[in-house]
Design goal:
The structure is a single chain. The chain has 15 helices and 8 strands. Helix 3 packs antiparallel against helix 4, helix 6 packs antiparallel against helix 7 and helix 9 packs across helix 11. It is globular, with a radius of gyration of 21 Å. The strands form 4 sheets. The chain has a two-stranded antiparallel sheet. A two-stranded antiparallel sheet has the order 3-4. A two-stranded antiparallel ribbon has the order 5-6. The chain is 52% helix and 4% strand. It is mostly helical.
Length: 460
């Protein structure tokens, strides 16, 4: 199947419609870091709070895309973000990244986070600096990444039950619903639980960091998170349970009323996008760990990808729905959130193309990749102003005039998807391959990853 046209389309979308729209526009040369809030037509808005997740994701995207577009400038833009993380986002007294700061890098009450810390955000800080060190080879970046990793492990690792706690006070105390400390943050309904989302992004961060830092403790924690996500968080049906108590017992509202379920949707539903994103992250982690013939991880990753396709795909217009639910274990998963968020569509591109390489005889994967890309081109990409809409306009036409940038929306998901797909689809005749040594290294790494899993798949 000739996908040369798709490669050219994706290359244009990555450079012209995504990266060129964001950078250097969002580089805040006055206060440091990156602007966050962009209107639908890419105008900077007055309010510009800076969240650790968004700041870190910008660093990651810039570091990874430097080999695709403009190496020197993009590394400089990423180092600019590093300075803000180290000097403004990091708590120099207690350690750890604050969840959010204002435009100048000072205290803000936006979102109610105040001076609190989240392990999810700290994981992204580690993730970003690992990728920045890989391309910059700057020792102070590696040193700071080590500091972040050991801080996370010291203050948030659960030595008794495994995994990590998510919620920490300014002075690094874990808090839950029984604590004297009470939060008013926008994520307060999640307090006291362990969750899949921080877990999968710790896995992601540890995988990235393990690529540049060989440590027995890091290897141990990466292995722990892989097994926890694969064997505990992933259900037998092939989807992720979202929240758990401290001992990893699942939080479910299945036996409650439908109204109660709606109120607690955030805590309990099938998130197809997280499922197939996690399938990719598990394959990546196992590969980095050097586990040979890891049939169990491949089987479960495949089950997750297949479950999402069977239950979350819109057979009429294409794209993956955001949320489903099993009201009865013996019944089909019912769609309870029919929106199609941009990040879930992006992650689908990535994993279904990868699965098409690993299982070339199963046409459903390459067909889904092509159908997903066609859906994105028709309903997600903003052809007038650039970037992607927050959600598919087949379901939410009003997204055309909704913001392009927010604390939860940047360039990470669609940037990664496009970069990985371009890397897979390209060959030695591809222009970027010819001129970028870094891209050629990326191609070799990707080929090694896919070949590893193709050989494993032959044993299934």
């Amino acid at each position: 199947m000739d996908l040369k046209n798709t490669l050219n389309e994706m290359t244009f979308q990555l450079k012209n419609n995504l990266l060129d729209k964001w950078y250097p526009k969002v580089v805040d040369n006055e206060n440091g870091g990156y602007f966050t809030n962009l209107s639908y037509d890419f105008k900077l808005e007055d309010s510009q709070d800076k969240m650790i997740v968004t700041q870190a994701r910008n660093i990651w995207t810039l570091s990874k895309s430097a080999n695709f577009v403009d190496t020197n400038n993009y590394v400089n833009y990423a180092m600019h973000g590093f300075d803000f993380l180290q000097n403004k986002m990091w708590d120099k007294l207690n350690g750890g990244f604050y969840q959010i700061r204002n435009r100048e890098g000072k205290y803000t009450e936006t979102e109610g986070w105040k001076n609190e810390k989240r392990i999810y955000g700290n994981a992204y800080g580690l993730f970003a600096l690992a990728s920045l060190y890989k391309i910059s080879k700057n020792q102070k970046v590696l040193d700071f990444a080590k500091q972040i990793f050991y801080w996370i492990d010291t203050f948030a690792h659960d030595e008794k039950n495994g995994g990590y706690f998510q919620f920490l006070t300014e002075d690094c105390k874990i808090f839950d619903k029984e604590s004297d400390y009470v939060t008013n943050a926008n994520d307060k309904m999640e307090v006291g639980y362990k969750d899949q989302n921080s877990s999968i992004h710790l896995l992601e961060a540890f995988t990235e960091f393990f690529g540049v830092y060989d440590s027995n403790l890091l290897k141990e924690r990466l292995t722990e998170m892989l097994l926890l996500i694969r064997d505990v968080i992933t259900t037998d049906k092939g989807y992720l349970q979202l929240f758990f108590d401290q001992k990893w017992n699942p939080i479910s509202f299945k036996d409650h009323s439908e109204e109660m379920l709606k109120q607690n949707y955030k805590l309990d539903h099938v998130s197809f996008g997280h499922d197939y994103e996690t399938a990719f992250l598990m394959l990546e982690a196992s590969f980095k760990l050097g586990i040979e013939n890891d049939l169990k991880t491949l089987r479960i990753a495949k089950k997750m990808v297949d479950h999402a396709l069977e239950n979350g795909w819109d057979n009429e217009k294409g794209g993956f729905f955001d949320g489903g639910y099993y009201f009865n274990d013996n019944e089909k998963c019912k769609i309870i959130m029919n929106t199609k968020t941009w990040w879930a569509q992006a992650e689908a591109l990535n994993i279904y193309l990868i699965m098409a390489q690993i299982f070339p005889n199963e046409n459903k994967y390459i067909e889904t990749f092509i159908n997903e890309w066609n859906y994105i081109k028709e309903f997600i990409i903003d052809k007038e102003y650039g970037d992607w809409y927050w959600g598919g306009i087949d379901i939410e036409p009003y997204q055309k005039t909704k913001p392009k940038g927010r604390i939860w929306k940047g360039t990470y998901h669609n940037g990664r998807a496009l970069m990985n797909c371009i890397t897979i689809l390209s060959n030695q005749d591809f222009q970027i391959y010819k001129v970028s040594e870094g891209f050629r290294k990326n191609k070799i790494e990707m080929n090694g990853f896919i070949d590893h899993w193709k050989k494993t798949a032959e044993l299934l």
